[in-house]
Amino acid sequence: MDPPTKPEISTEVPPYLRVYSDGTVERFAGTQVTPPGLDPQTNVLSKDIIIQPQTHLTARLYRPNNTTHNHNNLPLLIYFHGGAFCISSPADPLYHNSLNRLVSEANVVAFSVDYRLAPEHPLPAAYQDSWDATQWIASHAFQHDNQQGHDTWLTENVDFDRVFLAGDSAGANIAHFIATKLHSSDSKNLMRFFKIPGLIMIHPYFWGKEAIGVEASDPERKKMVDKWWELVCPSEKGNDDPLINPFVEEAPGLECVVCRKVLVIVAERDILKERGKLYHKSLVNNGAWKGKAELYEAEGEDHDFHIFNPDSDNANNLLKRIAAFINNQD
User: Which residues are the signal sequence here (predicted)?
Assistant: First the structure.
């Protein structure tokens, strides 16, 4: 009897994954899992919650362990993790550690969404999951505290007038998507019950067919980033799909961002930094958007450095900058 034929490699997307001819996906990163619980270093508690059983949509919820001593409810950070839409999760030890630190530094409740990943679930699955999670959060603000399916960490500890959208890389892209979708007429009812004053975009994953800035001088890395989107989004528009390129005509105008303040964070050595800077500049120059946009650049650092090197001075400074943005109520 002949041994089974090994499936051929049909797609390879470095440094993230490989797809075989039989549909099997082999991931090279973002597969480790750490359980929730009390983190002794930060004194932050976490737990996993089910949002939508039919699509297996879950989230990891975080809060300071001393919330019983708070006389006022805390801001809520709705967080979307990075990973090019195809790797990682809130349970990834790197993200779990980062969220523990951020919750401790900013004194917030955090809600990290575990959206479905491509290529098994091509886009727009991640956007839909993130939107469903946002609606689930909003339901806590306008329904009774004891509503079945509601979580007491949210109903008892959150100030729903101070909800922030945040994410890194692909997660920052998702945060932008949610911030513009909330502007639509079908979504404005949600905004009557909770307020989202701020949007935090860390090393946002935006792209486009035409190279800008340093993208043109680094063709190998550009080719690598080009391939990411081809894997996760079956779109005829490629890297000018409005989901990845918010500057094309078909994309919602940036005046649709519902938040009154936006913090865009970029890293000096990150090839994605040009798009983040363009996003900030476009917001500032958009006369129809009445908010305040801030830009923060980490010198000498590359993409998601704060996730991979959380003990560095620059990573600690980044967390402090985010905490100040959240807690400054000007």
Answer: none
**Left (φ > 0), alpha (ψ -120 to 50) or beta: where does 299 sit?**
beta
Helices 170-181 and 125-142 cross at an angle (nearest 10°) of 50
Cα-based torsion angle of the residue sequence 305, 63, 59, 85 in order, rounded to the nearest 10 degrees: -10
- Distance (Å, rounded) from C-alpha 306 to C-alpha 140? 31
| The predicted structure's pLDDT at residue 223 | 93
Q: How far apart are CA 247 and CA 97, in angstroms?
A: 33
Residues in contact with 218: Cβ distance below 8 Å, sequence separation at least 6, in sequence order: 271
End-to-end alpha carbon distance in the chain: 74
The active-site residue out of 46, 89, 98, 169 is 169
Instruction: Supply φ then ψ for residue 130, to 5 degrees.
Output: -65, -35
Q: Which residues of 134-144 are buried (b: 16+ CB within 10 A; e: fewer)?
A: bebbbbbbeee
Separation between Cα atoms, residue 10 and residue 190, nearest integer Å = 43
H helix or E strand, kind and range, residue 295: strand 292-298
Task: Give, in degrees to the nearest 5, the angle at Cα 309 between 280 and 215.
Answer: 40
| Residue 169 among the catalytic residues | yes
Q: Is the pLDDT of residue 186 over 80?
A: no
pLDDT tens-digit profile of 277-296?
Answer: 999 999 999 999 999 999 99
pTM: 0.96
